[in-house]
Amino acid sequence: MSILFSPAKIGTLQLRNRLVMTPMHLGYSPKGEVNDQLIEFYRARARGGVGLIIVGGCGIDRIGNAFGMTQIDDDRYIPGLRQLVDAVHAEGAKIVPQLYQAGRYTHSALTGKPSVAPSPIPSKLTGQTPEELTEEKIKEVIDSFSNAAKRAQTAGFDGVEILASAGYLISQFLSPVTNQRTDRYGGDLEARMTFGLEVAEAIRKAVGPDFPIIVRVAGNDFVPGSNTNTESRAFCQALEKVGVNAINVTGGWHETQVPQITMNVPPGAYAYLAHGIKQVVSIPVIACNRIKTPELAENILEEGLADFIGMARPLLADPELPNKAMNGETDSIRPCIGCNQGCLDNIFRLKPVSCLVNAEVGREFELGPIPQSAQTQKVLVIGAGCAGMEFARVATLRGHKVTIWEESGQPGGQLALAAAPPDRQDFGYLANYLASACQKLGVAIQYNVKATSDMILTAVQKEGYNRVVIATGARPIMPSIKIEEGVRVLQAWDVLLGREKTGQNVIIVGGGAVGVDTALLLAEAGTLNSETLRFLMLQHAETDQELYRLLTQGSKKITVLEMVKGIGRDIGASTRWSMLADLKRHKVSCLDNHTVLEIRADGVLVESTGDSTQKVIPADTVVLAIGSCSQNELYNNLQGKLENLSIIGDAAKPRKVLDAIHEAYAEGIK
Ligand code: SF4
């Protein structure tokens, strides 16, 4: 890690390394003020070794902000902001606020006022039409930016970042899609850049020549008719000329239909956007989006694609990532798995950010370090799924001695199912991390042990276990419908784990996450792999159209049946849309509002919930994905026979991975 952890400068700002915590909306400041939750969150990241923290975003006014946002639009926030700065500085990191104005992405319900934008084009995010900014109002917004920057300087921040990406106000001015003005702020690219450049110039004037200014830009809007890397390069060159000190390059807008940070985006996929900009400016460029490991970060720097690396979610997952990487302990890093379930999905639900893999996120101020137990206990855990292992990890850190009995030959339980579909392998990294963390802490995981009540009672008696925790997970359920001989009926779990093979004409019963995952796995069968695609593309062997067809149309005909309205309703908002798009792309038929009445020799008899019409859909294989039930027999048998017995995870009640991990953490620190 010689480049990543080498000191570097942004303008006059000396940084201890090239790792930047990019801004992330946290929702921790319900009153706009800095509080202990925010301070301790960032203190932990600074202590973890990151070079620069960009606090994102900080509202520069009251017409363009978001829920729970830290505000920097009034002098009364300065003392709190100074406390935050001091906490981060005390840990050796530098800190800048991101100056945030959302324009037409602001929902009027949050501000009590209509949102504003260059032109009154309805927002796809809010469904609302913004008010067009007059030239007088534009001047006011520019003043709000420069006043906020001045406040940042007064509070002791080390610079500021201007938000000019992701479809927020400045990018709305830059784009011909959202800027249809005919005054000096609209028209050709040069005119559309005027607002962003005036913001940068006003800030430079307010803070003086030496205060670092970073601008976050979209490397490509990924919106039809909007700016690409070409326009972004021109904007960045102009920014350099007005005295901006670094460019932070992210991907597309929030409304893009090209996934930006979901699990299916290949790691480092968008580093080329930063490289495009780096080629035309001489100020430092920060590359971001799905750069989740120090090894990948180092590669990007080594290849000269960027000067700094931005990470946000990986530092949520593990604030100690930089220190661990510097100490050569990369295999101890708790991985961000790109699920968005605790972070982005929470923000969409107007809830503060948490993290699926790290139950401490946002709770640093109330939890502190895991406390040592006054008395060491001997604990037996049954099941090495995510709940069992997270419990074991935390209980061991408390000082207990933990043994796990696992029925199968590998750790992770249902994480293996979640990791099975294409582009979902990150769930497997979580299983690996938990197993490796347990192993390093000295948790004894014994595989291929099928626990019975008698075995547990004997072990408690003979080996002196003080506590038994049942984490035996769940099993798939069978429907109570007539199933005729003839058609192959399989459980989705068996298909996902490769234990069973389907025919060519497959019906999946159940359109929840497991059904969608199974459909996507089967839809890949017979499509081009990436190696072949690369070869064919480089040889110009097929047309783009034919390559697309070969990539998306496999050998199987797949139908997903769902009883109620909507497919994939239990998938988080930030991921669901792209999975539904994948189903469409692969021509998977999705039929919601249809109840399965019978599985017949020739297919599935269904009834429409709307008009009660019935029909048989032919199939040679029926895959069941209708849910799971707790595997709690051991717990039920042992109740009343053991003093200190508890049940966690899916064994208590089927739940999402996030809930299983968080509850296991809570049980572990008890
Ligand atoms: Fe990463 Fe998921 Fe945690 Fe978000 S919730 S930081 S995506 S692991």
TrEMBL record:
User: Which cofactors must be present for this protein to function?
Assistant: FMN; [4Fe-4S] cluster
Establish whether keyword Metal-binding is in the entry. yes
In which domain of life is the source organism classified?
Answer: Bacteria
Listed A to Z, the keywords are: Flavoprotein, FMN, Iron, Iron-sulfur, Metal-binding, Oxidoreductase
- FAD/NAD(P)-binding domain residues are 378-642
Q: Which GO terms describe its molecular function?
A: FMN binding; iron-sulfur cluster binding; metal ion binding; oxidoreductase activity
What the entry lists under Gene3D superfamilies is as follows: Aldolase class I, FAD/NAD(P)-binding domain, NAD(P)-binding Rossmann-like Domain
| CDD domains attached to this UniProt entry | OYE_like_FMN_family
Q: Where is the NADH:flavin oxidoreductase/NADH oxidase N-terminal domain?
A: 4-328
Q: Which family is annotated?
A: In the N-terminal section; belongs to the NADH:flavin oxidoreductase/NADH oxidase family.
Q: What is this protein called?
A: 2,4-dienoyl-CoA reductase (NADPH2)
Q: Which organism is it from?
A: Desulfosporosinus lacus DSM 15449
Q: Species lineage, top-down?
A: Bacteria, Bacillati, Bacillota, Clostridia, Eubacteriales
